[in-house]
Write a structure and sequence with these properties.
single chain, 105 residues, mainly alpha
């Protein structure tokens, strides 16, 4: 089974090659190459909750840092729940993902 990335589930069309990339730009999660492969995703597509500046609330609302996003929105996001369930018992928490990304610099 191919694992879906956030842009596939949310249908924002801001993932790689998406219809809205030209007008609104690529989503920071879709462009975060240091996160490629985490939870089996393309770039940050399966760990979007740790990627700063995503536009999950729409193109007018740029979200902040991991802690700002996670505490206010991401912990209750349907996509986050899907990834967590699919990846158990190997689900990586946010701080582990951030540390892994940092080591890939």
């Amino acid at each position: 089974m191919e694992k879906k990335n956030c842009w596939d589930v949310k249908q924002c069309n801001r993932g790689p090659g998406g219809a809205k990339v030209h007008e609104a730009g690529i989503c920071p999660a879709a462009d975060e190459k240091r996160a490629d492969g985490i939870h089996g995703g393309k770039n940050g597509g399966r760990c979007c909750w740790v990627i700063a500046g995503t536009l999950c609330k729409g193109p007018e609302v740029q979200q902040g840092s991991y802690m700002q996003k996670f505490c206010s929105d991401c912990h209750s996001c349907e996509f986050y729940s899907i990834v967590k369930k699919e990846e158990e018992p190997h689900f990586k928490v946010g701080m582990v993902i951030l540390k892994e990304m940092k080591s890939r610099n």
